[in-house]
Amino acid sequence: MTAPSATSFIPPVDAEMATGSLVINLSRIASNYRRLCEELGDVPCGACVKANGYGLGASQVGQALWAAGCRDFFVAIAAEGVALRRALPDARIHVFAGLSSAPASAFAEHQLIPVLNALGDVTAWRAFSSELPCDLHIDTGMSRLGFDEQEMVAIAADPSLIEGINVDIVMSHLASADVENSLQSAAQRQEFEAGTATICAVHPGARRSLANSSGIFLGTDFHYDIARPGAAIYGINPTPWTESPMSQTIHLKGKILQTRFVDTPRTVGYGAAHAVTGPTRLATVGAGYADGYLRSLSGNGTAWIRNVEVPIVGRVSMDMVTVDITALQDDTAEVGEWVTLIGGDFDADATARAAGTIGYEILTSLGQRYQRRYIGGPTEAEIGS
Ligand SMILES: *Cc1c(COP(=O)(O)O)cnc(C)c1O
User: Fold this and answer.
1) Closest ligand 1 atom, CA of 173?
2) CA-CA distance, 119 to 136, in Å (whole number)?
């Protein structure tokens, strides 16, 4: 008997058997990317495709962005870079967690660029290669990854600490870019100016990068030499203080598994969290928290059937939600009909607001039981170019 493969997981779901349908619009992803390029003017725009392209498929998204002109891609850990390399043979792939996520030899083997986050990383990379490119990360306020204040003081006093390596990008990450007129963004920018001055004195050819999605909309002061947005590419609003300049990229639907007529008194779902108060028609839809339809949407979510808005009632179950379809006057919702869960005006951001989270979490939670279809993708020729 052979042991099940450690990498086995839910196989791709085909149309006939799917109870959930996720359509991912690659031409919208490309047009969002171009919108960011427009905002950046002459400054090049990279793309974050970590966490499997924010849940939407790093390979597919990566190839669509490559066709749109993107050349620098950012992932969180080396393993993601290894997978992305197969889809993008010629891209520059940068790995935020750098040498903490894989040995130096793996970066060389797959032509990945490690972000060096500490002086110890610099020492290790220099011993490995003085030629292969690396990035440097200065911590200016996230306190997560990057050279800390003491290390920056040490580098200023002794620039040889960062000599003997080939630096591509010097970066830092904004903590409050999605807050309009944040004092923290201004302070981080000042600290980044000082830090990059120190580093670029040793590595004059290094490219400076500060802006994530929201950072791009803080103005040209934040653009530097390359931006690295993620969320906005996928349709999440980078300017929460005003209307979104991005277009939405996904449409999620669930299939009706059963309908029923319920009269009072009766409750719906676990914990009897919803009570039917009068003659009510309910539909049970095949998507639940195991599919990334978050449990915090219990009693808060909204669905659409035939363009009629209908509420999610009771608790979200693992595999199902219950929808009150009484508002459908003609009363004809049927088993097998599709209900929109995310789409139209009710996009990932709206879903997030209802769930008490952020659009990032909605996208990266999207499950593996949906039939995933990509539309508007690039041609073979565009991918190869
Ligand atoms: C995720 C990430 C980004 C992209 O941020 P968005 O808000 O999704 O645009 C940029 N830089 C770093 C270091 C990140 O971790």
Assistant:
1) 13
2) 10
